[in-house]
Amino acid sequence: MYGLGAAPSVIREIANYGWQRAAEVGAENVYNFSIGDPSVPAPDAVKQAMLKIINEQEPTGYHAYTPGPGAPDTRAAVAENLNKRFGVDFTADDIYMTCGAAASLNITLRALISDPKDEIIVVIPYFPEYKVFIESQGGVPVFVQPDEHMNLDVENLKAAITPNTKAVIINSPNNPAGVIYPEALIEEACKVLEEKGKEYGHPIYVIADEPYRELVFTEEKVSFIPAVYANTVVCYSWSKSLSLPGERIGYIAVPKGFDGYDEFIPAINGAGRALGYVNAPSLMQQVVRDCIDVMPDIKPYAECREALYDSLVNMGYTVAKPSGAFYMYIKSPDGNSEDFAERLKKYDVLVVPGTGFGTPEYVRLAYCCPVERVKKALPAFEKVMAEYK
Amino acid sequence: MYGLGAAPSVIREIANYGWQRAAEVGAENVYNFSIGDPSVPAPDAVKQAMLKIINEQEPTGYHAYTPGPGAPDTRAAVAENLNKRFGVDFTADDIYMTCGAAASLNITLRALISDPKDEIIVVIPYFPEYKVFIESQGGVPVFVQPDEHMNLDVENLKAAITPNTKAVIINSPNNPAGVIYPEALIEEACKVLEEKGKEYGHPIYVIADEPYRELVFTEEKVSFIPAVYANTVVCYSWSKSLSLPGERIGYIAVPKGFDGYDEFIPAINGAGRALGYVNAPSLMQQVVRDCIDVMPDIKPYAECREALYDSLVNMGYTVAKPSGAFYMYIKSPDGNSEDFAERLKKYDVLVVPGTGFGTPEYVRLAYCCPVERVKKALPAFEKVMAEYK
């Protein structure tokens, strides 16, 4: 635990440098693209929902313990919303409210992993905390290389599956690459999991980590995996979609066709208890219930994305297709992302080297920021490209 | 995890029965004393603080991620409040904000326990989840019998310490017994820990679980243990003091004199990360900062306590001295608490048998309820005592 606490998260380290640097030279002169903190405010509906609850209800109601899996009406609202949008048939029983996506993932992993040999496959590039979570819940992370477009590579996935494979984490729209895995790829991957599961005599689950589900800038469809593969646990969070990252509110959804459903639902309850999660924050459970159909305003992110993408490509950069989330994944001209990040840093442009995400030749640029910051940072990219040429 | 999720918590089971029964015969006819859910509403200052934050600040501020250990100003406010009240010298660095007491305890246990042989001593009677938390964080719970007044027994504590003892959980005011461990006893116990620590060549820590610190009905002083024994981790929650149980907000406090402080603070950060706690809920962090000096209105609990205690004693019941918290611990006239609870249940009076708390001869009555409920339940106790006589 000491190592985990003492080792700086690279993202946080760069963000902290940026905040210090802003104090020295002025915030307007630092182009801090390090951290995925939503710049779009929570929709006004969130504020109105909070005020209505606070002004019209008794505090002994909205501040009270809820049942461990969450308030029944919130769970029902989540189920209904998923059914309406994705043609599935969840009920409140299938939904377990959590303190955000990190809680969703840890509870899911704790409930799934039963043997220290259990392997959880992670598709590169990946959110670095996956490794921490898998290891701390007693499993072994196994990393799978993507294709050259930073997409899921089904052949690589297939090759990584062993008799010990318990689950695969799928994160699309992807952090850090911003890509959306094409539907056909997801379906092909699920077919492989189905076959391998039969071959090894036990299901291979998908953990669909979906905090960026609502942040999509193209016509591409984000697969809702339980609709095509029942052995899927959905881990969701409103951190990005409703811009509530500090409030820690999310859920786990398990379809009734999930192999071992009757044991897995109690196991989720047990894992929540074992990790000290009593219930998801109670006021926020009511807020997300009341805002269940509210969609984020992604226009500000779309503007940043447009301002960046074409310019970077025109300058000669290779960039993963930024279809969703609010990250741009940019290849270092010479393949060394640490050096690339250092060169940009000289111009006070702060990005995160891809080493921790599993692709040391890329950097991640988080464009959840005012569009002016993006536009003013472009000349630095131009100059750095000139240095390489 | 399945076992943990499938096994019903006795308290929840009885509470659920009470709610069902209320639907059948009317809530006014069921005397549900099973669960420790505060009946006193959160002070109005909490509502005003929420409204002020929501109406005056930008949502990108109050809903944002905070640093993992919490917002600096909230941590500073907690430190200052402790210093003012208890003559200690905490700084913001010593405070780690959490998602409630269960999170505080699990993070602390995870940071402390480093070997599967590590033992954590629990003083009987105890909150049943301690066992779950210690085991799920990889340690061995060791239970210590109290004296006949349900107080800490220092000789029993001393006898339970082994070279593997890592820490002792002290919970005063106590759930379920309502007793406050006398200052002299606490000091004596800390002296024993000091000596045994020297004998075994490693510190024996205290984990002071203090959710009921502010709920005191007598002139007895609740020891603030770090002031007398620096090897103490305080685990606090505002669930009971500000009646915010559903919001999940609390803290961990570690004094600078704590043996291994420089490693333990990062270990707490690491444990929080490993359990999936990103930060304590952000809006509530601001609320508790703004309400740091607000004390609960405990008059309604005091009324219930008075209405119950003398009457029960006059009827011939043996009751642990109800000095704090909002629990009355009542001995079964024949020493069988399961049977005692069953007899009361026939009159729709619902209490929790003490088996899960480690004292099978007592029942716990949670008097966080309207005083009328308490008064109307007294005749049932009279009738049950007559049955025994």
TrEMBL record, chains A, B:
This is Pyridoxal phosphate-dependent aminotransferase. Transmembrane segments: none annotated. GO terms for molecular function: transaminase activity. Residues 29-379 form the Aminotransferase class I/classII large domain. InterPro entries: Aminotransferase_I/II_large, PyrdxlP-dep_Trfase, PyrdxlP-dep_Trfase_major, PyrdxlP-dep_Trfase_small. It holds the Pfam family Aminotran_1_2. Keywords: Aminotransferase, Transferase. CDD domains: AAT_like (cd00609).
